[in-house]
Amino acid sequence: MKHHQQQTTCAAELPGVLAQPKPAFMGHLFERLIHFWRRWSRGHSTLKFAVLAWMACIGCGAMAENASPLGLEVGVVTLTQVQKQIGSQTRLQSTGINKYSGGKMFEADASGLNVDGVKSVVFIFDQADVLAGLLVTMPKDPKSLVKTFNGKYKLVNNKVDNFMNYGTAQFAKGDTVIDIDAPHLSFDMEVRYLSKRLRDAFMQQSNAETAAKQKRKADSL
Fold this sequence. Notes:
The protein has helices at residues 2-18, 24-40, 45-63, 79-85, 142-150, 196-220; strands at 92-97, 102-108, 120-126, 131-139, 154-161, 166-173, 176-182, 188-195. 43% of the residues lie in helices and 27% in strands. It has two domains: 2-63, no CATH class; 69-216, no CATH class. The protein has 221 residues and is of the alpha+beta class.
């Protein structure tokens, strides 16, 4: 009877834990799960393993906070990890230093990645050799890709012409901004997975270059 009361008490406390605001939610949830596991693990080995498996799944989901194209989480994985995972499947070719991140760049032709439709992938790292972005080139079909991404990421804006099947769209997940860029007069589109820091640096420098170009044009007239 006492054993049953303990189970009921733990179950009753879970809604209160789930209702707590983030970010304290995850930490408190793990504390309650550990407390629950300690109470029951002695006489319930099956339950013990189930709780441990659940905790492991929650932990894995909590860590994957950013977009993870090709299984590589932007802002988390390192150059060494990319070389080990991608370099074992296809050739990685160094393409110099990225002017926005200040880090190394590598390109893969995607021939060994076994990802349908992907033609090439450019990997951009920051100065600490952490993955800051990926540029994925594939056949143009933004309409279908927007549908796919709607189930994975948060939609920021969608300017894709569904009739002509071209245009741009933007999504976000954690610290990652995902841009779909499908030009009208092109057979390919580019999907960019960029950390917010890299994208901000790109936008800042691009705007500065555009302003300088307009100024030179105005000065010459």
